[in-house]
From TrEMBL:
This is Bifunctional glutamine synthetase adenylyltransferase/adenylyl-removing enzyme. Residues 1-433 are annotated as: Adenylyl removase. It comes from the Bacteria. GO terms for molecular function: [glutamate-ammonia-ligase] adenylyltransferase activity; [glutamine synthetase]-adenylyl-L-tyrosine phosphorylase activity; ATP binding; magnesium ion binding. Residues 35-271, 542-783 form the Glutamate-ammonia ligase adenylyltransferase repeated domain. Belongs to the GlnE family. It is an enzyme of class 2 (transferase). The gene is glnE. Its EC number is 2.7.7.89, 2.7.7.42. NCBIfam families: PRK11072.1 (NF008292). GO terms for cellular component: cytosol. GO terms for biological process: regulation of glutamine family amino acid metabolic process. Residues 291-429, 805-887 form the PII-uridylyltransferase/Glutamine-synthetase adenylyltransferase domain. Keywords: ATP-binding, Magnesium, Multifunctional enzyme, Nucleotide-binding, Nucleotidyltransferase, Transferase.
Length: 939
């Protein structure tokens, strides 16, 4: 609490308004005097306005300005009165906001929102009146199709962000959707029409009259600034930003928002502009632009002695804004949640994304609110656009007391504390990252290449094959890609390469890491954003070397798709592996109907999510079972999104089949939720439609052909090559009758086939089959068919004989084990032996134990068999151990691009023995010939 002190100017202000109240018959008491006194501490301008508008004083004393007043009606016949009406309205509403702020009725967020809404109402009211006037004189602008066009008023800066300060100017840009001409007697071309309209709008708001001004208007943020044309078509603006847009304009247009005119058209245009503002990759190049802007501001601060400017000075408002906006620009292309306009919600989003520490985020939010409140108070005193702290002692003490401090010293201590916190965070963002300072010898060696340089620097760093390493680096240095780099890009490369060399030397596999890293560098030389990422983020560089040194698959993928470098910095990479819901949400979020664009975006999402799963496996944050399951869930999500795209394309060509349903069934490792890296998908397609059904399009097809087209489209889309790779190879040979059968089967034909003609091995495959995508009711009907098929009563000996014979036939053809290495999948005691064992258990016992029908995954099947009493608990426990070992070794092999064959060791031998023992305990022997002839080989 502050102590009341003598203040003659405040007392005179109270006396003036008390006298006014007496003349106007406005009730007045000690409470009124106290409230007016608090107002007088904050704003001399507000006292002047109240003297000119007694009705406003009466209203504030009656209800404390509980709600905004209506904007004035600007009648066409009173055009000369428009400026005065707007200015008096803006003054009255501004005083209402000061009153509520001074009395502590509104917090700073509410005041900023109120100031924003006031500016919007004035803009919209003024523009509507001017549009009506222009329509009378010039008609309305129509495009080539005769559609009426309206001006779009974009607000940038704090008005765009919905956080306008009290006496700020408003940054506006004028645009219109299409070229055209007005349809009145005095016709104008669209550009001239909207430029004149915009000029009159700015003058109506900005011009100083006897009543002051309404809002200062700044139009200099338009393309080409003050020398550019005043109103731009959307097409011209888009072309400008594609060809000439600069870094500072990306920051400016982050906050762009249509606030008057055709707001819907404005929002649509901003969607087209999004790729200019937010790049698809992690854009650490944005920091260079920010450093340049910061340097310019610092020079201005020094030149104009603005150290006490709370906006532009050190630790001021602009540093918080730039910090938040820079992180938005870097990440917003990948994270839609970071594309907001308002600062505080975006600060919260950055904390939620773990890009700013919670403690730092809280300190920045507190500092921002403090500084914005001080800024408002500075401007409220005289309705002046100032950001400088007062120099006179009286003004300083008044400001401090009005903000609740005992004196200027206490206020200044709090202010300086906030500014130090802001400055520290801002400098941490812009400071060159600690790259661990690679030895000068490596830097000198690299910069001397290709003609000079001492290879001894490589030996000293830890490379053994110095000659090979030196040759690779000289080839890189003389490559056209390196020679063609710009000065700034070459400077980045000269910092990155020595750091990569040092990390590769320390990786334990120096030459392997070096070869893989250099392959990546060749691919990103022309992509400055990726060089910037490695330069700015040493954590990403170190993680990259570690990753590629231990995984040939990930090294290939990063080299082929540098977009995956973003994943090395994603905070979620080090967290939990995405679950089923997150994987489906990420793929479902890929928008659009254009097949090429959807497949590109979907491939990027699949690559990123698969990369994240692989890193989790390699880092030991998730075991092999969890990772294989998530790879299967990711495939489910991709198939579901591709199915939506395929259905839309077939429907566009042929219409839809009424009351028809379609389903995609996953078999094999997809059905068993045990997918590997790079695995193909075993798919079967079912449909159900009314008899004689045909599609309702102009080029109608009967149901059978329509669904064949749909299935063909799904397979083709999954296999389409894009810049981000192909989604999946598809194998459809497990459908009824194999390669000779129809690509798509009706529900009833599928049921008949499984009941009447399917071999035992096909029923084995059905054990792991599950619905992946499509109509929910048809998927439920598939489950019923599967349960009735798999759960029928069978002769145990026949089941065992068929399973045994099929397994032997497969092993004879597919087992690649030899004396030196074991085939993890097809070898004796391997993964397929375990799968066949569990399938035999289900086919033999499911009729008596229906709980065996539900599981598809190996771990859940083992558990179900144990609960049913078919597997002894100790055998079940050992099978879990064996499965985990074999699967982990298999995934590790594919991660390093090795065949799934491993050397025999104690762990592998133990796992094999556990599987063989369980097979034998269940009356199956896959390891020696028996009498009897097995079924036909699978297709």
């Amino acid at each position: 609490m502050t102590t009341a002190v003598a203040n003659p100017s405040r007392d005179r202000a109270v006396a003036r308004l008390q006298a006014l109240a007496a003349r106007e018959g406005i009730p007045w008491d000690s409470g009124a005097a106290a409230r007016v006194a608090r107002l007088a501490e904050v704003s001399a301008w507000a006292i002047d306005v109240l003297e000119r508008q007694p009705a406003l004083l009466a209203r504030l004393l009656a209800d404390d300005g509980a709600g905004p007043a209506q904007a004035p009606a600007l009648a066409p016949e009173q055009r000369a009165e428009w400026p005065a009406l707007l200015r008096r309205y803006r003054a009255a509403e501004s005083v209402r906001l000061i009153w509520r702020d001074a009395l502590g009725l509104d917090d700073v967020d509410t005041t900023l929102a109120g100031t924003t809404r006031l500016a919007e109402r004035c803009l919209q009211t003024a523009l509507a009146a001017l549009e009506a006037d222009f329509a009378q004189r010039h008609g309305v602008v129509r495009d080539g199709h005769g559609q009426a066009q309206r001006l779009v008023v974009f607000a940038l800066g704090k008005l765009g962000g919905g956080e306008l300060n009290f006496s700020s100017d408003v940054d506006l840009v004028y645009a219109y959707p299409h070229e055209g001409e007005s349809d009145g007697a005095r016709a104008l071309h669209a550009e001239a029409y909207f430029a004149r309209l915009g000029q009159q709008l700015a003058r109506l708001l900005d011009e100083v009259t006897a009543d002051g001004f309404c809002h200062r208007v700044d139009l200099r943020l338009r393309p080409h600034g003050s020398v550019g044309r005043l109103a731009w078509s959307f097409a011209a603006m888009e072309q400008y930003f594609q060809r000439e847009g600069r870094d500072w304009e990306r920051y400016a247009w982050q906050k762009a928002r249509p606030v008057a005119g055709d707001i819907e058209a404005g929002e649509r245009f901003l969607e087209t502009l999004r790729p200019f503002v937010y790049r698809r990759y992690l854009d650490f190049g944005a920091l260079d632009g920010l450093r340049a802007m910061k340097a310019a501001i610092a020079a201005e601060v020094a030149r104009k002695e603005l150290a006490d400017d709370i906006k532009r000075g050190p630790g001021g408002i602009r540093e918080i804004e730039f910090l938040v906006q820079a992180l938005q620009l870097i990440r917003g292309g990948r994270e839609p949640a970071l594309r907001g306009r308002a600062l505080l919600p975006m600060l919260e989003a950055l904390v939620a994304q773990r890009l700013i520490a919670p403690q730092a985020g809280a300190a920045l939010a507190e500092a921002y609110r403090f500084l914005r409140r001080v800024e408002n108070r500075l401007q409220m005193w005289a309705d002046a656009q100032t950001h400088r702290l007062p120099e006179q002692d009286e003004a300083r003490e008044r400001l401090a007391r009005g903000l609740g401090f005992a004196d200027w010293t206490a206020f200044r201590a709090a202010l300086d504390g906030h500014r130090r916190a802001v400055g520290a965070e801002f400098e941490a963002l812009l400071a060159p990252r600690d790259r661990g300072a690679p030895p000068d010898a490596l830097a000198r060696y690299w910069q001397a290449l290709p003609d000079h340089g001492e290879p001894q620097a490589l030996a000293d760093a830890g490379f053994e094959d110095v000659e090979d390493a030196d040759g690779l680096l000289r080839d890189l240095a003389r490559s056209p890609g390196v020679r063609g780099l710009s000065g700034s890009a070459r400077a980045r490369l000269d910092r990155v390469v020595p750091a990569l060399l040092q990390a590769a030397a320390a990786s334990g596999r120096p030459m392997l890491a070096l070869r893989r890293v250099l392959a990546l560098l060749q691919n990103i030389l022309r992509r400055s954003a990726y060089l910037a990422l490695l330069d700015e983020q040493p954590a990403a560089l170190a993680r990259l070397v570690d990753t590629v040194a231990h995984s040939a698959l990930l090294a290939e993928r990063v080299a082929a798709y540098p977009l995956l470098l973003d994943e090395l910095l994603d905070a979620r990479v080090a967290g939990e592996v995405p679950d089923r819901a997150a994987l489906h949400a990420a793929c479902a979020a890929v928008e659009g109907d254009d097949a090429e664009a959807v497949l590109q975006a979907l491939n990027e999402a699949r690559q990123a999510l698969g990369f994240r799963i692989a890193l989790a496996l390699r880092d030991g944050r998730a075991d092999a079972v969890a990772c294989a399951q998530r790879l299967a869930w990711l495939a489910d999500a991709v198939v579901a999104r591709v199915l939506r795209l395929a259905e839309a394309e077939v429907a566009a060509a042929h219409g839809r089949v009424p009351q028809a349903r379609f389903a995609v069934i996953g078999y094999g490792s997809l059905g068993g939720e045990e997918l590997g890296f790079g695995s193909d998908l075993d798919l079967v397609f079912l449909y159900h439609a009314p008899e004689a059904a045909v599609s309702d399009g102009a080029r109608a097809l009967d149901a059978a052909r329509w669904f064949v087209r749909l299935a063909q489209k799904v397979v083709a889309l999954l296999g389409t090559a894009t810049a981000a790779g192909r989604l999946y190879d598809v194998d459809v040979r497990l459908r009824p009758d194999g390669a000779k059968g129809l690509l798509v089967t009706t529900r009833d034909a599928f049921a008949d086939y499984q009941r009447e003609r399917a071999w035992t091995w096909e029923h084995q495959a059905l054990v792991r089959a599950r619905g992946v995508a499509g109509d929910a009711t048809l998927l439920a009907e598939f489950e019923d068919i599967r349960a009735r098929t798999v759960g029928r009563t069978r002769e145990p000996a026949a089941v065992r004989a068929d399973v045994r014979d099929m397994r032997r036939r497969m092993r004879a053809e597919l087992d690649r084990s030899d004396a030196a290495a074991f085939d993890l999948k097809q070898g004796e005691g391997g993964l397929v032996d375990l799968e066949f064992l569990l399938q035999a258990i289900v086919l033999e016992h499911a009729h008596a134990h229906p709980a065996l029908l539900a599981p598809r995954t190996t771990p859940r099947l083992i558990d179900a068999a144990a609960r049913a009493g078919v597997l002894a608990p100790d055998i079940a426990a050992r099978l879990h151990e064996a499965h985990a070992v074999l699967l982990a070794r298999g995934l590790a092999s594919t991660l390093d691009r090795q065949p799934r064959r491993v050397r025999y060791d104690e762990t592998i031998e133990t796992a094999r023995a556990q599987v063989r023992a369980a097979v034998a305990a269940c009356g199956l022997r896959f390891d020696r010939d028996e009498e009897g002839k097995g079924p036909a080989a699978p297709p």
